[in-house]
Write a structure and sequence with these properties.
The chain is an alpha/beta fold and about 425 residues long. It contains 15 helices and ten strands. Bound molecules: iron/sulfur cluster.
Length: about 425
């Protein structure tokens, strides 16, 4: 009954329940519904906390291998920040071998044509979201407050079902996964490969189960080439795919990500830890207001695993009140405080999974452990070691704006990189 407990006590959604009585007792969807009829956030925490393997995500490995084996398809992969902190766990790979570059080599060994990094589009998300925040902040009366991050599809589902009157508070910026898909099938197809975007098959490797549903949203595709993201694999599926193709990453040399969508900053890699999106956005907002960079670790008070973190920053004489929350039970507590006017913020980061994507529902399962802290520490170490610490200094993102999108929040950026969260419905 751990699925019932995690959903009830930690995520506050009560999707699972005990069905029937006596010897017919079993676990099922509460209120005698199908899972597709429930307002499930699809966070996948029931899967990662199931000790028996009774629950799993939809398996999309075959779909990806069919594309890899199709000579008419150019398979383009993106790998999310949190995957690099955990992918080796499902393969029994020693930590010093489970590097980002060996992960890129392993993806290439599967037959993927271009191995890119979601860190690139996480930087792009920051460019759009930080500028959106400043635009709202300087036209305060035209918007609802606080502004919420929108990069976690589990959280977007939660707010749509539990607090529908607060959907307008969400940033309209798409998640890094969806920004990547839109850019891969527009800029990359047109300007770099000079091919029909229909030839591209875009696959994401994610720590997340909710991203599978996000990629299938009816109003998320803006590159005019079918789905912007054709398939989403969890970290567990990626590991399974490597095993089933008999690839031994320990025998592979490290390789670089492909260019140009393979360059990411340290600000992007911490998206995988709770507080990371806020910290990355504040680094770029500081630059926008001051015209010079802050010390990269100036906003580190938003790090850590406390359920709700609050911090106020003075940037160029402007006070910005922030909150960072992870886990949907903590989120409900915060939302109730906001609704009751017991708390007042300008910018709030929400991640549906306890610990953020580091402990996402698609991550390798380590029975009895919650490894968000260790995985998050790996991501912060990668940030420290990256010579590029600011999203606005990512040369590939700058080139994308110069050659294609013009500037953050331009008309083209709005078409490709923003979405209408009210353009689709939750089941009930
Ligand atoms: Fe997915 Fe990360 Fe949100 Fe969990 S916290 S639902 S892994 S985006």
């Amino acid at each position: 009954m751990r699925c019932v407990q995690i959903c009830d006590k930690v995520q506050s959604l009560n999707i699972w329940d005990i069905i029937n009585t006596g010897k017919r007792t079993s676990v099922g969807v509460s209120k005698i519904r199908k899972i597709t009829e429930a307002d499930c956030a699809l966070c996948g925490q029931c899967i990662t906390h199931c000790p028996t393997g009774a629950l799993r995500e939809r398996d999309d490995v075959r779909k990806v291998m069919d594309a890899v084996n199709n000579p008419d398809k150019i398979v383009v992969a993106q790998i999310a920040p949190a995957v690099r902190a955990s992918w080796g766990e499902g393969l029994g790979l020693a930590q010093h071998m489970a590097t980002e570059k060996r992960m890129a080599a392993a993806a290439r060994a599967l037959g993927i044509d271009y191995v890119f990094d979601t860190n690139f589009s996480a930087d792009l998300t920051i460019m759009e979201e930080a500028n959106e925040f400043l635009e709202r902040f300087t036209h305060r009366d035209e918007y609802r407050w606080p502004m919420f991050t929108s990069c976690c599809p589990g959280w977007v589902r939660f707010v749509k079902s539990q607090y529908p009157d607060m959907v307008k508070h969400l940033s309209t910026a798409k998640s890094p996964q969806q920004m990547f898909g839109a850019v891969a099938k527009s800029y990359f197809a047109e300007k770099i490969l000079q091919t029909d975007p229909e030839n591209i098959f875009c696959v994401s490797i994610m720590p997340c189960t909710a991203k599978k549903a996000e990629a299938a949203l009816p109003n998320i595709n803006d590159a005019n080439a079918g789905r912007d993201v054709d398939a989403v694999l969890t970290t567990r599926e990626f590991d399974r795919m490597l095993r089933s193709e008999l690839i031994t990453p320990a025998n592979l040399e490290e390789e670089e990500f492909d260019s140009p969508l393979g360059t990411g900053s340290g600000a992007a890699v911490i998206f995988g830890a709770t507080g990371g999106v806020m910290e990355a956005a504040l680094r770029t907002a500081y630059y926008a207001l001051h015209k010079e960079n802050p010390k990269p670790d100036l906003f580190q008070s938003v790090r850590g695993l406390d359920g709700i973190k609050e911090a106020t920053f003075d940037i160029a004489g402007t006070t910005i009140r922030t909150a960072v929350v992870h886990g949907l039970g903590n989120t409900r507590t915060l939302m109730e405080r906001i609704k009751a006017k017991e708390a007042d913020y300008d910018f709030v980061e929400v991640m549906a999974c306890p610990g953020g994507c580091a402990d996402g529902g698609g991550q390798p399962i380590i029975e009895g452990q919650e490894p968000a802290g260790e995985r998050g520490a790996k991501l912060y170490a990668l940030d420290q070691n990256n010579p590029l610490r600011f999203s606005h200094e990512n040369p590939s993102v700058i080139a994308l704006y110069n050659k294609y999108l013009e500037k953050p929040l331009s008309e083209k950026a709005h078409t490709l990189l923003h979405t209408d969260h009210e353009g689709w419905e939750m089941p009930s």
